[in-house]
Amino acid sequence: MHVQVIECMCALFNGLPAKRFQEDFYCINPMILGRVMTPMNVEKFEDKHNSEYVGLAECWGNEIRLFNKVEAAKRHTFFVPICLDNHWWLYAFHPKSATFFALDSLVRPPLTDHRVKVDEYAAKLIDELAQLTFSWYKVQDEGIGKPLYVDVPIQPNKYGSM
Fold this sequence. Notes:
By secondary structure, the protein is an alpha/beta fold. The chain has helices at residues 3-15, 19-23, 30-34, 39-44, 56-60, 69-73, 113-133; strands spanning 25-27, 77-84, 87-94, 99-103, 148-149. It has one domain (3-149). Strands 1-2-3-4-5 form a 5-stranded mixed sheet. The longest helix has 21 residues, at 113-133.
């Protein structure tokens, strides 16, 4: 699926007039993390003390285009679509409870070392995004942690897991 399709779906999703969508969920444009989570930056990422860490500010500065902080702050959960190595999956993050989920139709625990690194990097970026959105939110000392993998049906196609 092409990134522009997901961008449009997020824009439509965020603009739906249904009360549930106006209060509960905000879909993060995939270009926000996609611009940062390049294969090269994922490989550089090791932990929060790594001098090679490239965060949102390095790529976007103080103002992230494609992201409406006012609207996002009204919602309870971020949906964060990710595409890496031509594979899409979805993270969901609930800032008040610091609950972090992954929905992926190809990947199941136990995870490869590469996928663990990708999840850690995404968690750090989503933590930053929550801090930019909610005045009450404090970046977690240990990050938001590893995502809980939701049991979704395996996608029958020619692609392997990460």
